[in-house]
């Protein structure tokens, strides 16, 4: 019983609360038989004239007889319940600042104060912005682009401030080939390369509320702006210069490559990659063995053509004359002659003597004597090289010849060849004292060159 | 036994009927996404604040209204309901049409979003205050000016409280 009474009480309470709201008393059903005849559409424009808003409604059927028809809006209004529209030709409009902009309103078509059809609308969901204006296009030659700017009155409004703008442009010759770009700002950049050169273009802009709280329809298009794109000569003026530079650089590079290929082996490679002398090979070349078929003979009779003095050594007379500039020299000649006459019993020449009297024996160097003879003959290069060497060795000559006069076998460890070592000097095998040189020479007649090792041994 | 059951039948249900509206919230907050508040109410509150700042110098004394009503937890809708109703009282002041327009927008917009049951429907809204009887005309003028200043100060504080309470509601909705 208690529960029943409680339930009944709650039911009555709820009925009272629900029925308290306005609007439900009227029939808001859309299934009106006359809806199709009086169907209409509306849009709102906020703050069109200061704080005043504009609501415009029109019938979908333009042929309808709207003589006695009126529009009325109720709900979501400030301080009033309903407002009536004004009629201007076939359009019904209401200019007021009494829109609450919160909640739904009901717009009804009245025929002699009888509601023919009603529609529930929210003023903020049928907003139609004002059309943009002042569309301008400026060409930037440095950047090769077009800057599109336009203005809209919504920038100074309080409610519908954020819009989406659609910029449409086309080439005037091409119908209905509009390119469209959406943006939220009032500035757009079009690249020149994306447009046809030397062509006439048309551009226009429209707006729609950004779907945050306010929604609605596209505004009317702005007045079109026409502009012409420049010709490509502007950009081609710099091309001949670049073209000339590129051609010249290409030909210069080709010429350099050709010269490099032609002069590679002879000029360039030796400079870049010089062939460093191989000491061993160089030495072998300088101290090249005589040809095997070279008939070397130390037989004095074979040197009859040569202007040499017979000596029992391998020392040429000219050389001896070359460095013997002191009084010792005639003594030396006499002693040498005596020794030669002595023949085989001459002192054995130490290897220093051979070192002292260097002879250049080269297979390449020409000899003044008969070919095939030993290299006791003068080499043509020697006179030029001999004199300085002779001067250098002048000081040490007395020492040398003292040793020679003293006898064979004396070796002076301190004695050093006054002449710098010249390649091709005839080597002398160290011969035991008393042994004739000629025999030693004969044994080494095939070894007609001096090696570095003989110098070390003599030292 | 009979009078006991009689008590349960005729005593408790009416008591429940009386207590239910008091215990339950009579306001349902619409527009919880904050779109209506940020795009309409806040715009008008800022305009009113700018208009009031231009004119008045307010004291720091908090009116008694805020001592009685505050935006406590689970009472935000009730506070806004009372505050919106209080705003309507300022429409009677000698103020410009734009000022009245903004006041109406904030007041009615808040009530529309709250969607409260008309608990006090038909009840006359309490007045801001009664003018004290004065002796001469000049004193009346100065008192009226003083009263206007006080009312504007009260309005300024009220608008700030409304703004704060709305922010609290929206913040709480975002957190949940």
In a few lines, what is going on in this structure?
The complex is a heterodimer of chains A (459) and B (176). Chain A is α+β, with helices and mostly antiparallel strands and 459 residues long.
Features:
heterodimer, A: 459 residues, alpha+beta, 4-stranded antiparallel β-sheet, 27% helix, elongated, B: 176 residues, mainly alpha, Growth Hormone, Chain: A, 7 helices, 0% strand, membrane (chain A), FN3_dom (chain A), receptor (chain A)
Tell me what the structure shows.
The complex is a heterodimer of chains A (459) and B (176). By secondary structure, chain A is of the alpha+beta class. Chain A has helices at residues 2-19, 233-236, 239-262, 264-272, 279-286, 317-323, 328-342, 351-356, 382-392, 397-406, 437-443, 452-458, and strands at 40-49, 52-59, 69-74, 82-84, 86-88, 91-96, 105-111, 114-121, 133-140, 145-151, 163-171, 179-183, 187-191, 200-209, 225-228. In chain A, the strands form four sheets. Chain A has a four-stranded antiparallel sheet with strand order 1-2-6-5, with no helix packed on it. In chain A, strands 4-3-7-8 form a four-stranded antiparallel sheet, with no helix packed on it. A four-stranded antiparallel sheet of chain A has the order 12-11-14-15, with no helix packed on it. Chain A is elongated, with a radius of gyration of 63 Å. The longest helix of chain B is centred in the C-terminal third of the chain and has 39 residues, at 137-175. In chain B, 24% of the residues are buried. Chain B is mostly helical. Chain B has a domain at 32-50 and 64-115 and 144-175: Growth Hormone, Chain: A (Up-down Bundle), CATH 1.20.1250.50. Classes of the chains: A alpha+beta (459), B mainly alpha (176). The interface between A and B is medium-sized, with 25 and 30 residues. Chain A: Receptor for interleukin-7. Also acts as a receptor for thymic stromal lymphopoietin (TSLP). Chain A: Residues 322-355, 378-397 are annotated as: Disordered. Chain A: Pfam families: FN3_7. Chain A: Residues 131-232 form the Fibronectin type-III domain.
């Amino acid at each position: 019983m208690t529960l029943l009474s409680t339930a009944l009480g709650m039911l009555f309470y709820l009925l009272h609360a629900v029925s308290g709201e306005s609007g439900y008393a009227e029939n808001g059903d859309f299934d009106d038989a006359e809806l199709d005849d009086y169907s209409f559409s509306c849009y709102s424009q906020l703050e069109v004239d200061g704080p005043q808003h504009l609501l415009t409604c029109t019938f979908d059927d333009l042929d309808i007889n709207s003589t006695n028809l009126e529009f009325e809006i109720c709900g979501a209004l400030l301080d009033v319940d309903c407002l009536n529209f004004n009629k201007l030709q076939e359009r019904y409009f209401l200019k007021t600042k009494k829109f609450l902009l919160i909640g739904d309103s009901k717009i009804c078509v009245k025929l002699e104060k009888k509601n023919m059809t009603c529609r529930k609308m929210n003023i903020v969901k049928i907003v139609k912005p004002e059309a943009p204006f002042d569309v301008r296009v400026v060409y930037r030659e440095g950047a090769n682009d077009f800057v599109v700017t336009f203005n809209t009155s919504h920038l100074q409004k309080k409610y519908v401030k954020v819009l989406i703008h659609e910029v449409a442009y086309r080439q005037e010759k091409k119908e209905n080939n509009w390119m469209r770009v959406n943006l939220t700002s009032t500035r757009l950049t079009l690249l020149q390369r994306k447009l046809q050169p030397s062509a006439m273009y048309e551009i226009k802009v429209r707006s729609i509320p950004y779907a945050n709280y306010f929604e609605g329809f596209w505004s009317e298009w702005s007045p079109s702006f026409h502009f012409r794109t420049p010709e490509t000569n502007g950009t081609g003026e710099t091309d001949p210069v670049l073209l000339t530079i590129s051609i010249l650089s290409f030909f210069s590079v080709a010429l350099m490559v050709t010269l490099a290929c032609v002069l590679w082996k002879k000029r360039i490679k030796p400079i870049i990659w010089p062939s460093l002398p191989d000491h061993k090979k160089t030495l072998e070349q300088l101290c090249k063995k005589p040809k095997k078929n070279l008939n070397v003979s130390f037989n004095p009779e074979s040197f009859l053509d040569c202007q040499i003095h017979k000596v029992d050594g391998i020392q040429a007379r000219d050389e001896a004359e070359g460095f013997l500039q002191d009084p010792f020299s005639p003594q030396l000649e006499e002693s040498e002659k005596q020794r030669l006459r002595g023949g085989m019993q001459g002192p054995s020449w130490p290897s220093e003597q051979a070192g002292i009297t260097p002879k250049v024996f080269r297979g390449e160097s020409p000899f003044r004597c008969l070919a095939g003879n030993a290299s006791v003959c003068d080499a043509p290069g020697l006179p030029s090289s001999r004199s300085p060497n002779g001067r250098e060795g002048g000081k040490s000559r007395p020492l040398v010849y003292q040793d020679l006069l003293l006898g064979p076998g004396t070796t002076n460890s301190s004695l050093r060849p006054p002449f710098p070592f010249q390649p091709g000097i005839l080597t002398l095998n160290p011969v035991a004292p008393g042994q004739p040189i000629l025999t030693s020479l004969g044994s080494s007649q095939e070894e007609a060159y001096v090696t570095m090792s003989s110098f070390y041994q003599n030292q | 036994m009979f009078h006991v059951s009689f008590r349960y039948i005729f005593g408790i249900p009416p008591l429940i009927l009386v207590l239910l509206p008091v215990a339950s919230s009579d306001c349902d907050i619409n527009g919880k996404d904050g779109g209506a508040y940020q795009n309409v109410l806040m715009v008008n509150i800022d305009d009113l604040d700018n208009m009031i700042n231009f004119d008045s110098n307010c004291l720091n004394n908090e009116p008694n209204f805020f001592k009685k009503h505050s935006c406590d937890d689970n009472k935000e809708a009730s506070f806004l309901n009372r505050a919106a109703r209080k705003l309507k009282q300022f429409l009677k002041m000698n103020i410009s049409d734009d000022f009245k327009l903004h006041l109406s927008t904030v007041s009615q917009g808040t009530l529309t979003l709250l969607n409260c049951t008309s608990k006090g429907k038909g009840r006359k809204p309490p007045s801001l205050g009664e003018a004290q009887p004065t002796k001469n005309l000049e004193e009346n003028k100065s008192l009226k000016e003083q009263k206007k200043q006080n009312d504007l100060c009260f309005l300024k504080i009220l608008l700030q409280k409304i703004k704060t309470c709305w922010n609290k509601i929206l913040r709480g909705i975002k957190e949940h």
